[in-house]
Design goal:
By secondary structure, the chain is α+β, with helices and mostly antiparallel strands. The chain is built from eight helices and seven strands, in the order H-E-H-E-E-H-E-H-E-E-E-H-H-H-H. The mean pLDDT is 88.
């Protein structure tokens, strides 16, 4: 019976993108927690899944060139935690800026702001540090435009003048990103709440297709 349940879990996993990170809560609709835990352990033992961290699992896939396991990204981990706990998370500005090509600076660790206390995670050598943050500071957490806003705030902290070079780099970096309709709508809806006038000046002509006044 456990073998058939393991097969059922694997079939559920196959329905999604292979990079998705899973928790036991994702399978609650299939059966009891004890059965889920045992099935996950067996899937790890059989090599179908890898254990990313305590309570976190991912389908084991190999790189077509190196034939080594594909790495787990911090974004996959955070998405799994957000699904399980329903707690929005806000990534730090340097990480967001690096993700979107606005800086070549590589963060030594990823800082995640959230309203709950969590232990540090080590994902294949990449440290994720969770910082308990007041809800008032998490306005953009979990929203479509979160990464863009955090990245721009980091740029603002390091370059306070809006010159042609930064405008060009931002337009290049976000050219495709801003075409995603839910991101653009999120920015328009939250425009008055953007963290700085600098950011509003930068995004106004991009979002509203008018010359900045």
């Amino acid at each position: 019976m456990l073998e058939s349940f393991k097969t059922e879990l694997l079939a559920e996993i196959e329905r999604f993108e292979p990079n998705r990170v899973w928790t036991a809560a994702d399978f609650a609709h299939l059966g009891h927690r004890d059965a889920i835990d045992k099935a996950l352990q067996r899937l790890v033992a059989s090599g179908d899944l890898k254990r990313v961290a305590r309570g976190l699992y991912q389908k084991l896939t190999l790189n077509g060139i190196t034939n080594r396991p594909n790495p787990t990204t911090y974004t996959d981990v955070l998405e799994a935690l957000e699904r399980r706990d329903g707690t929005p998370m806000l990534i730090d500005g340097m990480t967001a800026a690096n993700d979107l090509g606005l800086t070549t600076a590589v963060p030594a660790k990823i800082i995640v702001h959230t309203s709950s206390r969590r232990s540090e995670l080590d994902i294949e050598g990449q440290k994720i540090i969770f910082r308990n943050t007041a809800p008032s500071k998490l306005r953009w957490a979990g929203r479509p435009a979160m990464r863009l806003v955090q990245a721009l705030q980091w740029v603002y902290d390091h370059q306070t003048e809006l010159d042609d070079d930064i405008v060009h780099r931002v337009r290049t970096a976000f050219g495709v990103f801003l075409d995603v309709e839910d991101v653009k709508e999120d920015l328009i809806k939250g425009f008055s709440a953007l963290p700085s006038a600098w950011m509003q000046d930068l995004l106004r002509p991009i979002l509203f297709e008018t010359k900045s006044i």
